[in-house]
Amino acid sequence: MPLHSYLFVPGDRPERFSKALATAAHQVVIDLEDAVAPEGKIQAREGLSKWLRDGLPDIDKERVVIRVNAYGTPWHEDDVKMLRESAVTRIMVPKAEAASELADIASRCGKAVSLIALIESVAGVVEMRAIAHEKAVSRLAFGSFDYCVDAGVEGSGRELDYVRSQFAIESRYAGLAAPVDGVTLSIDDADLIAADAASGRRFGFGAKLCIHPKQVEAVNRGFAPSDADFAWAERVLAKLAENPRGAIAVDGKLVDKPIVDKAKRIVASFTR
Predict the structure, then answer these.
(1) Residue 127 annotated as binding site
(2) CA distances (Å), origin 76, targets 50, 82, 98
(3) Which of 1, 29, 250, 257 is 20–30 Å from 214 (CA)?
(4) pTM above 0.85, yes or no
(5) What is the rounded end-to-end Cα distance, in angstroms, of the chain?
(6) Is 101 part of any known ligand binding site?
(7) Is 120 annotated as a binding residue?
(8) CB 136 within 8 A of CB 115
(9) CATH number, span 5-223
(10) Which helix (H) or strand (E) holds 159?
């Protein structure tokens, strides 16, 4: 199933973990980093470890991602050690800036892991190609607001066009899934969330970070193909099946390989 929505839940609020899994979010990101104050990080890790051991249903293990504390912080090594002993294999690494650090995290996990590299700084953007090619990395994500602070960028619209394009280019070049776009701070403005999702999709993103369950539906809808797109893709593939080796036209337009590939992607990502 395509993974379009990544819903954050604070790592020190275990009573919310199952509630987050009960939403339509494709992935639930339990956050030990920004959502937890320094004085609460050890307790949060211990509570999460217990929940992963005793409270996480087997059916939901593939939906859980853990955002650990950043590489080099006082809590990072113990976060990774805790995950090494758990059944979770999906880890979000904040402030990703070096492929070597990601490789080190993967090696310390002692099992096959899938790392989501959250790039939130100028240094991370500069190193994006190497990060994307680290074998344990499965997806890039854009920490857009932290990036803006680091880069001195004032604005989250066209000011970020160049960087957004880099995410799409480097993800494609490394053979990764389409990248994950940053958060929308508004919780209740469904139109704004939908517009942000549509903008991310136009730039080549395939998913979006969510900070509240109210955002999930709009994000899922925004990244899914429309009914019209799906109907067009089905017509293309049906025509191709009728004439697999000859030239075909759909809706009066010649169809070549890139168009066929687009149609296949649309059908594969249609979830309604």
Answers:
(1) no
(2) 18, 10, 15
(3) 1
(4) yes
(5) 11
(6) no
(7) yes
(8) yes
(9) 3.20.20.60
(10) none
